[in-house]
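Recall that a protein's primary structure is simply its ordered list of amino acids. Everything else, from secondary elements to tertiary packing, is in principle encoded there. The following example makes that idea concrete.
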Amino acid sequence: LEKMTDLVAVWEVALSDGVHKIEFEHGTTSGKRVVYVDGKEEIRKEWMFKLVGKETFTVGVAKTKATINIDAVGGFAYEYTLEINGKSLKKYMENRSKTTNTWVLSLGGKDYRVVLEKDTMDVWCNGQKMETMGEFVEDGTETHFSVGGHSCCIKAVSSGKRKEGIIHTLIVDDREIPEAVE
């Protein structure tokens, strides 16, 4: 395996199916461009005459669109920016924190990352979309599923405040799990 000598940028992108690592090699003398997603080569271009431009690829189970923009910033300096679904990584992550809830927990010595997509009520755990059963309860809804033999429930209740909207809480074995900040 050749050494990544032209590695110019590394990004971590949190999606529903997990946190993905994107690495970009840019050989400014050879014109080489290589994109790796989770250590796997996605794009390789040798001897590119144009040193600026963009590379587009997909990330994760849902094949989320990602684009690396390569811009010249003076002499022989370049700036690399990552866009996810057409938004800057920062904007995408800000928006994502509004549309998803994420919990990280440990059960029986194994780590789990549970993600709720609020718009679809889909639940993901360690990269797998979970089988869930939803039910209406007195104060809202409950979405039931199991992880590693443990019964889990995401409770959705109104905050009573319009600006806050609905509060989602993950309960595993009658224990409330604090939400993770990604």
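The chain is about 5% helix and 60% strand. Residues 89-99 form the longest helix (11 residues).
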